[in-house]
What does this fold into?
Amino acid sequence: MDEWEIDKPLGQCYGSGKKIEYGEEYFGALVETDEGLQRRDFCADYWESQKPNVFCYWKTKRPQPGQKKARFIDDEMLMAFFERLGTETEQEKINFRFVLALILMRKRRMKYDATRTEDGKEIWRLRIVGDKEIVEVTNPHLDDEQIEQLSSQIGEILQTDL
It folds into this structure.
């Protein structure tokens, strides 16, 4: 697996270069680049006026120094990220989606149903809890260290405990 590094928030708007002040709301986003998914932060003014093209985003607030980070990502947002990745074919995004599926299973938002093999790939069938909908996810056969690394990086991106 390739290394997958997402930058931490820098406190600066990617679009305008303006400093994002402590306590100020801003938009964190994942953007598709030639190098893969990258995190970029945008101040609210830039976001509203320019509507940057992003893969997915969330609204957050820059914490005061020493202040515990607020957790803004809920299960619905995780489900939206998971669904958005459903048609992606790049290995990085397949890995990202698989780890999101594991997180959603741990949060009891999805339950394992069955496994099938298609074109040499292991496909997991998962049922969304409280719904009859079945979703499928490719198991990229990540080892424990890779799963932990991706979970940690996803948590950093989304600024939440996973």
Notes: The first helix runs from residue 44 to 50. The chain has a mean pLDDT of 84.
